[in-house]
Amino acid sequence: MLDNKLASISVDQLKGVGPALRDKLAKLNINNVQDLLFHFPLRYQDRSRLTPIGACFLGQEVLVEGEIRQVDVSFGKRRSLMVRLQDDTGVINLRFFHFSGAQKTMLENNQRLRAFGEIRRGLHGYEMVHPEYDVDQPSKPLGPVKPTLTPIYPSTDGLHQASWRKLCQQALICLARTQVTDLLPDSAPQAQISLTEAVRYLHEAPFNADVQALREGTHPAQQRLALEELTAHQVSMLLRKAQFKHQPGVAIPDNGGLVNELLKRLPFSLTRAQQRVMHDIELDLASGQPMHRLIQGDVGSGKTIVAALSALYAIANGFQVAIMAPTEILAEQHLEAFSEWLEPLGIHIGWLTGSSRVKHRREVLEGLANNSIQLLIGTHALFQESVDFAKLGLVVIDEQHRFGVHQRLALREKGKDIQPHQLIMTATPIPRTLAMSSYADLDISVIDELPAGRIPINTVLIDNARRDQVIARVAGACDAGKQAYWVCTLIEESEALQCQAAEDCANQLQMLLPNTRIGLVHGRMKADEKSIVMDAFKRAEIDLLVATTVIEVGVNVPNASLMIIENPERLGLAQLHQLRGRVGRGSEASHCVLMYQDPLSLNGKQRLKIMRETTNGFIIAEEDLKLRGPGEFMGTRQTGVAQMKVADLGRDAHLFDDARQLAELLIKKAPDKAEALVQRWLAGADRYADA
Ligand code: ADP
Ligand code: MG
């Protein structure tokens, strides 16, 4: 049995904790003393020394002490209680808008007090509004100033900082009699500070602590805890991965020659990166355990053919395959590619989207149930409950970040008692730290090579004021038989406004360029309206396609070699990279014009500069993560990045490798400690989105 004393002392046993407070704490997943000790301060206030009243500055938070000179109720604009406090160096007013008679009497009947608050300018010199204060009473003298920084705890409604401090003080008394159980294996890197010391330090940081380091989270105490927290997260992810692997899966041992058949027919050969990824997938499929693999490959790296080859494995073994894309445009594009590749091999493909007609839908459902459809392509319509497969063996999800977690889970269920293999494909390069934190429950393969012969896209930044020149350039390109995209972006949340803006833009361009054939796609158009326009663009019957960011993912029109993006500063780099990836797909040199609105913020400038300097999605993703933080990077919910208490994905990247190794070791050698570690850091909260 693991000895974890602090976790066995319930908060009930602390002074001042009744049922109401206990329930409040339980909502924050704080049930025992260990939980309290791992509820760390957000920041600190320095009340460790007295400031002479005459030396206070406006805006400073200070602790002052002096004689109570006067206690008055003043009737200005608002009634308030004014206390004049004086020391050898000066006078200051303490002002209370909410006060009781008892409070007034008590202030009148005493001589000295000590107050902490922010210095503001009042009508009669400096003042503090509603300072925290203690009165010097015979029964409760002020005593010496505490030589520690005052912690400010993350809190919730109706729980005051004073309560937190009292609770944590009691928890620290418990800690004085014992130790925080060290759960990391002995091979953990030698820390400058023990776990128990680290915990104590954060609750009772001394007055001379390196406040800067504490604020940045780089203090050895925080780093010690960050390593442990990251390890706990790794343990939790790895356990989940193992759990998934232990579900019954299907073995798909052989491709029955179909794979070679397709490879022979392709006009190209696989890149080395594609071959490597195929090898990973082959091993997964043959293993008999459910595959759960994420394929990362930059736009244009050739993920689709990898999906098609994987599908052939399943089909050759008599299993069905579902392929899901986030939009109808993309699903249709897949339908085209897969039909071209697989139908010559005698494979039956079904097609299902939200806009499928009833009759068509019924036929597809029948085909799936009697196993005559071997491959189903579609959008999230595939998740609907009425869709039942006879023998689903593989699910491919394209452009994973567009799909919600629940949709993925729903599709897993389609496998009934066996888990179909899952292949998830994303064109969003995931920085290593994010991959190691939020995707640690998946196996990851990377296609880190583009097919030969691609010409890098040339990106330029142009001020919006030179719009005329940009329009002339578009006209020139279209006259020369090339095609172009014009992407409108708008900050407004409202899709309606975005679409309106795109429409206005298209009209305006049409007026200026009467000889150019201009098309428009936006998110409010019906699926079939969109595909009519997209088809026309693919067939080069449209020269210039004006679009909102709906064209972001996957659309493939190799003859389009120019892209204008309006107000690129409004988009994330990853998104810009996706957009830009629509060009540079043919044999012509391609150009991307980022037409920004002056003035750009410094951060905006830096970000657009990165876009100009590189087309490497991984570099762009790393930079985007640095400049925007993990939450913004992909939308916190989608990353599944849990709220961490101490660790920070960006700052603590250097701890990841150790955390991973420690987690693996713990799971293997000390499963009880692994469990206790997860309990300590992640108790109660299933804070990961199950991505
Ligand atoms: P993405 O990874 O963005 O989904 P696609 O699968 O759409 O990329 O591939 C982009 C284009 O490159 C397609 O036209 C595809 O047929 C082609 N392609 C894929 N693999 C190769 C390869 N090894 N050599 C040459 N072209 C390839
Ligand atoms: Mg794709």
What does this structure look like?
The protein has 691 residues and is α/β, with parallel strands linked by helices. The protein folds into 4 domains: 5-45 and 151-216, no CATH class; 53-145, Beta Barrel (OB fold (Dihydrolipoamide Acetyltransferase, E2P)); 257-447, 3-Layer(aba) Sandwich (Rossmann fold); 458-614, Rossmann fold (3-Layer(aba) Sandwich). 40% of the residues lie in helices and 18% in strands. The strands form 4 sheets. Strands 6-7-4-3-2-5-8 form a 7-stranded mixed sheet. A hairpin with a 3-residue loop joins strand 2 and strand 3. Helix 10 (272-287) packs parallel to helix 11 (303-316). The longest helix is centred in the middle third of the chain and has 26 residues, at 220-245. It is globular and about 95 Å long. The chain starts with a helix and ends in a 9-residue tail after the last helix. Mean pLDDT is 88; it is low at 634-641 and 686-691. The chain binds adenosine-5'-diphosphate and magnesium ion (MG). Residues 268, 270-271, 274, 297, 299-305, 427, 451, 556 line the site of adenosine-5'-diphosphate (ADP).
As a whole number of angstroms, the C-alpha radius of gyration is 32 Å
The CATH architecture term of the largest domain is: 3-Layer(aba) Sandwich
Q: What oligomeric state do the depicted chains represent?
A: single chain
CATH superfamily of the largest domain: P-loop containing nucleotide triphosphate hydrolases
Main sheet strand line-up: 6-7-4-3-2-5-8
Largest sheet, strands/sense/barrel: 7 strands, mixed
Query: What average pLDDT do the residues reach?
Result: 88
Structural domains: how many:
4
Predict the CATH topology of the largest domain. Rossmann fold
- The percentage of residues in β strands lies in 15-25%
The proportion of residues forming helix, as a percent range, comes to: 25-40%
CATH class of the largest domain: Alpha Beta
Hetero ligands: adenosine-5'-diphosphate, magnesium ion
Shape: globular
Q: What's the count of strands?
A: 22
